[in-house]
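To whoever picks this up:

The parser on our side crashed when reading a file containing two proteins. I've narrowed it down to the boundary between the first structure block and the second sequence. Both blocks are reproduced below exactly, byte for byte. First block:
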Amino acid sequence: MNFDFTEEQQMIRDSIARFVQDDYDWDTRKAIVASEAGMAPANWQTFAELGWLSIPFAEADGGFGGGIVDSAVIMEELGKGLVVEPYFPTVILFGGLITRAGSEAQRAAMLSALIEGRLLGAFAYLERQSRFEIGDCRTVALPDGEGYRLSGEKVVVFNGEHAEQMVVLARTSGEQCDREGLSLFVVDASAEGISRFNYPLMDAQRVSNITFDNVRLEAHTLLGDLGNAMDVVDAVVREATILLAAEAVGIMGLLNQKTLEYTKTRQQFGVAIGSFQALQHRMVDTMMAYEQAKSLLFRALCEHQEDPEQSATTVHALKTLIDRNSKLIYGEAIQLHGGMGLTDELDIGHYAKRLMMINTTFGDGTFHRARYAEQAYAA
């Protein structure tokens, strides 16, 4: 099997790598994170001009027509730069839901604006009590004439602060934890009855807790079939989990590279610490952990292209392995950098924080280990 990237994929990778190197160095990122917005709108327009926002979408919708491997290349390179602009919540989550569940009119109205950099989106799915069970939903959308009234609260909404449109998961029938009876709605973030509490996470990503107080929704805001949202949500979350793993693999590889370079220059007892056999063994362990994660990522990508539903078991295994191996890699990176590894001035700790947040998005290692065991036992 050929694991080499195509010429187009290599061009995408090189383009993002050059952007990170030339326009997104560590000091630039720190300034962006410290700004009031927590992102740079000019960078988002650059993403649009370079075509990165169009890559996952079909040519019929104005996109590049790329697949999940193309998106994985983007996520891996953005991870290496710790890019805080909302590519994942807008393009992968919001755009993925519109692509899968939207009508032709909905796709035409929103995807073109997204691709051109004129629309920022978000997916509001998580609630205080739901933890990793997305179907545990108290937010309701009750019939109101030809439309609906939306009430409830969503928490930790990625890009909720800047989103102009949101896809909201709400219950239209059934009990709190029923899989059936959940629906998706496209909600204007400026609608009457919406309030947002914005805050940064430990990795500098901006999120929001969003309250919906009897928000009026027109009938055309329904995304997909009424009461059957979870099949679409599962498909988008499965793909998003693979792409988060790609971002994690990019960070893990970069941490290994930075740590290896440091051990070659840091002197102790008159020699580089990289010459110590004990540290060499530890670096071999982290390299093996990285290679294991990358190999399982490639397997998940291949299986997803063949049969997305059949890749679910491998996705659970991948998320479990990323959780375990990333902890080893960032732990060793911090330790081998000594006290510097814990400082905000050095990027090592910030990469570690991003990996921690990736590990808790859509389920941590314990959650996915249990799901993997269930599916393996059933098989």
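<<boundary where parser fails>>
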Amino acid sequence: MGSQPEGRLRVVVIGGGTGLSVLLRGLKHAPVHITAIVTVADDGGSSGRLRKEMDMLPPGDIRNVLTALADTEPLMEKVMQYRFSTGTGLAGHNLGNLLLAAMNEITGDFVTAVKKLSNVLAVRGEVLPASTQSIRLMAEMEDGSIIAGESQIPLTGKRIKRVFLDPEDVVPLTEALIAIDNADAILIGPGSLYTSILPNLLVHGLFTAVKMSAAPKVYICNVMTQPGETDGYSASKHVEVMYNHVGGPFLDTVIVNSASIPEQILEKYAEKGASPVACDLKRLRQLGLHIVAKPLVTFEEGYLRHDANAVSKEVVSLIKRKRRAQKKEKE
């Protein structure tokens, strides 16, 4: 897995879920070396079952990222993402998750399992779990109730006050810390704010490394709100929630979509309780952020997705600008 080509910009991407995978599909074609640091707080579906039955880290988010970064035939992607619909014990399981579970049993170590499967899939870059400890994501809701489990949090119908990890003193993976230390840029998101992004930032040692890094820290804001998590949230609210959880500001740049969304797509999302994340530029400026507000979405089969190639170009140009500025300062 990923020996770094000479002179390539080193980009660390932190998150989980489908948003991160969409971004990585574009970023893997950019002239950068990618290290994806992925949440391991998932406890739902196939991942949750394997986590319980095999006492392993949940493989789902890792599988999505491996598949997104793989340099293989489209058929292999279908194999990795195939979900069984029948079969006693098999129904609901994802084949990629089972491959990771098998590799975990064979190698006796989840990180090694991910590396070995990365080699099989010719993954461009490195994929690392944020921690190798078993983590449960907990949420305190605004009414004071405590909800246990990443999969349960968005289902309560209550507003989230804060999320936290159980145990709270989770130890980050050393390789993840080294990747952050060597990064030319750190990208956070896109992805579910409370259940994909914050579980990584709440790993204290990991966040400390992010904060101490001199690399630009870029938040790629979600295009739509997420029912049960970020109902009614603007772009600045996403940023403020992160700051409240980690004890203060740490971002340099926010990338937000400024494209208007076709009415029929808005209606489709409204049925599920989602609406566009408002791009509140004035408040983002008050937070001291450099703002990249551009049309950065595509429409695939009626769904909104970040335009991975457009976002990747913005990221690469940001890094190059920062490098030129740093070079001038030294002269």
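After patching the parser it read the second block fine. The first helix runs from residue 17 to 27. Residues 9-42+132-330 form a domain with the Rossmann fold fold (CATH 3.40.50.10680).
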